[in-house]
Amino acid sequence: MGWQWFHRLGSPRWFYEKTEIWIPWLTILAWGLLLVGGVWGLGFAPEDAKQHNSYRILYIHAPVAFISMSCYYIMAISGAIGLVWKMKLPFMVMKAAAPIGLALTVVVLSTGSIWGKPTWGTWWEWDARLTSYLILSFLYLGVIALQQAFQSRDTADKASAILALVGTVNIPIIYKSVDWWYTLHQPATLKLVGKSTIDPSMLYPLFIMIIGFYFFFTLVLILHTRTEILRRESRTQWVRDLVLGKAKKLPEESAQ
Amino acid sequence: MVKSLFWATFTRDLTLAFRHKGDMVNPLVFFLIAITMIPLALGPEKAVLVRIAPGILWVMALLATLLSLDNLFRSDFDDGSLEQLLIAPYPLSVMVVAKVLVHWLATGLPLTLLAPLLGVMLSLPASAFGALVWSLFLGTAAMSLIGSVGAALTVGLRKGGVLISLIVMPLYVPILIFGASAVQSAALGQEYTMQLAVLGAALALALVMAPLAAAGALRVSVSG
Amino acid sequence: MKFQFDSLDAFMQMKGHGVYVWASYAIVYTILIYLTLSPLLQKKAFLKQQKKWLKLQESSENV
After folding, report:
1. With 0-12 CB in 10 A as exposed, 13-18 as middle and 19+ as buried, what is A134?
2. Do A114 and C16 touch (CB under 8 A)?
3. Measured between alpha carbons, how far is A98 from A104 in angstroms, rounded to an integer?
4. Residue of A nearest to C32 (CA)
5. Residues of chain A with pLDDT under 50
6. At what angle do helices A12-39 and C18-62 cross, to 10 degrees?
7. Quick one: DSSP state of residue B127?
8. Cβ of B153 and A162 within 8 Å?
9. Quick one: average pLDDT of C4-27?
10. Are C1 and A44 an interchain contact pair (Cβ–Cβ within 8 Å)?
């Protein structure tokens, strides 16, 4: 048996064919949870004492913030695996994760800003969380920009993997620095509305949304990776067969 | 052996740097001109300048450093000597440190020494000059090290310039925060040793990790 | 667990916060739909383009 399973894991074709079955299930799970949680949060969770109804943005803001961070780590770890074990698939996952992560950060920043208006009175507030999150979104931009800049895909993969890893080391440092910076410059003006205390009845939809979003992220990452696989492996026989509609099953004892 | 390798690379690069004095002067001129823009944009009121001087000085020093990063490996890349360094049987990270040291001596250190003059132009309080020099001394060194990773990643690209800034600036944020804060605290007559200590720690961390990352990035850039 | 609003209109207004909440949810779900659909559309376009290209290759070989 040995390392066969591990190297098979690195086979794009294996990934492509294995994930085919998962997609319908993931889609139902993810979108089901997201719709249930969304409706619950919008209409059925109780109104907050301090923030009234604007806190409902929490249900889409916080989970997306979590997965945007997870996405970054997945991107960096895939890059590391690709660099160390010189496998193709991890780099494809890394490449797929980058624009997803960027879209997620756009969501977090825009919903955070919109939430801020009724809560703090401004569209933007240089508080510790928003500021360090903004900087972390620059890390995503850097990785994507670097990926686009190279002619050779191999070089692009390795370079952006290195950058993603360097960024990972910096994330806690950046966060701590900005946190410290903010306590130093605590604005004298009081915030319009303070933080809310979370009632248990508000937490259920939040959990549903968090789980739903993780399923969603998995689904979307798989979908993007599959498209990337097709693009990169377009010259192989199995992709040609797929294109021409003559799909053949992967033989079980494949020596890839 | 490693020590002599280090000094050999160092002296070679230093000689080369001094042959291109223009490259050394550019960041300084940028620093000067950029600082001059500030009162032009915000008005000459000393009260305003005093408030913003620490931060502005630090931001402009950071930008001037960014501008100079592209040169770190480029000339060696262009004439093929970088490739030679890669196949040499010596640890690449040692040679990176030597190159970064030269870069800092030619860029960061002059910026640090010029800063007090610019501080005077921005009405920086007298108490802050020490903090300014020390924070920039440590900070520019750290920035050269961290910036070398960005330079290494983009050396193979023709239009690497703006990309380096995009890549490296988020990594500079902690240094900027603590550097500017040191000067700000000193300007208010407060203690600033904590900020300097953090900068020192950042420099130490960068010294350990950046050369390795840059060496890896150089291998990727040259082979690609 | 009951529906928190008296009427559909109240649901839209949300005591003045409606614009913010609905705008946020709209942005998010739009991006989620986009993230789900774009790889599928790209894959379709890719397969179509590759089919054309391969058929072209095949026919040029047969000539």
Report:
1. middle
2. no
3. 10
4. A216
5. 189-190, 253-256
6. 160
7. G
8. yes
9. 83
10. yes
CB contact under 8 A, C21 and A57: yes
Which residues, including other chains, have CB under 8 Å from residue B10's CB and lie 6 or more apart? Answer: B98, B101, B102
Task: Give the pLDDT score at B167.
Answer: 93
pTM of the complete model: 0.86
- What Å distances lie between residue C2 and A37, A152, C46, CA to CA? 15, 58, 48
Identify the pLDDT of residue A187.
Answer: 60
Q: Does A8 touch chain B (CB under 8 A)?
A: no
- At B41-83, the pLDDT tens digits run 998 898 999 999 999 999 999 999 999 998 899 888 888 888 8
| Residue B107 confidence class, pLDDT cut points 50, 70, 90 | very high
Reported ipTM: the value is: 0.85
**Is the CB of C34 inside 8 Å of chain A's CB atoms?**
yes
Q: Is B159 within 8 Å of B149 (Cβ atoms)?
A: no
Burial of A80 (0-12, 13-18, 19+ CB in 10 A): middle
Structure token pair of residue A212: 């739903």
pLDDT tens readout for residues C40-59 = 999 999 999 888 888 888 88
Cβ of residue C40 closer than 8 Å to a chain A Cβ: yes
Out of C25, C50, C54, closest to residue A60 by CB: C25
State the DSSP code for A42: I
N residues, chain A: 256
Residue A167 with chain B: CB contacts under 8 Å: 170-171
Q: CA end-to-end span of chain A, whole Å? A: 14
Structure tokens at A138: 């620059």
Size of interface A-B (CB pairs under 8 A): 76
Of residues B108 and A185, more confidently modeled: B108
For the purposes of burial, counting CB atoms within 10 Å of the CB of B23, is it exposed (0-12), middle (13-18) or buried (19 or more)? middle
Comparing alpha-carbon positions, the chain A residue that sits nearest to B180 is: A181
Distance from CA of B102 to the nearest CA of A (A): 23
State the pLDDT at residue A254.
45
Which has more confidence, C22 or C13? C22
